[in-house]
Write a structure and sequence with these properties.
This protein has helices spanning about 1-10, 25-40, 55-60, 85-95, and strands spanning about 15-20, 45-50, 70-75, 75-80. The protein is built from four helices and four strands, in the order αβαβαββα.
């Protein structure tokens, strides 16, 4: 948990992908997140959290469905959405924060 807090308390936007290995839509998000990272390079930090292996973090942040994407800036949640989000939409959201 301390490491997670350290990660989301960065100056740059941190996009957290809460996922599960068994989740079909989560598998769809993986290449989209790679494209976002390739496009934005070091403007964003992208972290993947497996909800089955990190149940305490998922519970603390009220993640009830996967995939859930949460964008943090300086440790504060600035955006959240469950389900698949396309590359262009994610880039726009990150750039506005």
């Amino acid at each position: 948990m301390a490491k997670f807090l350290e990660i989301i308390n960065k100056d740059k936007p941190v996009l957290v992908d809460f996922f599960a290995e068994w989740c079909g839509p989560c598998k769809t998000m993986s290449p989209i997140l790679k494209q976002v990272k390739d496009a934005l390079k070091d403007q964003v930090v992208i972290v993947k959290i497996d909800v089955d292996k990190n149940q305490s973090i998922a519970a603390k942040y009220q993640v009830r469905g996967v995939p859930t994407l949460i964008l943090y800036k300086n440790g504060t949640e600035v955006w959240r959405q469950s389900g698949v989000v396309q590359k262009e939409g994610l880039i726009n959201i990150i750039n506005t924060h």
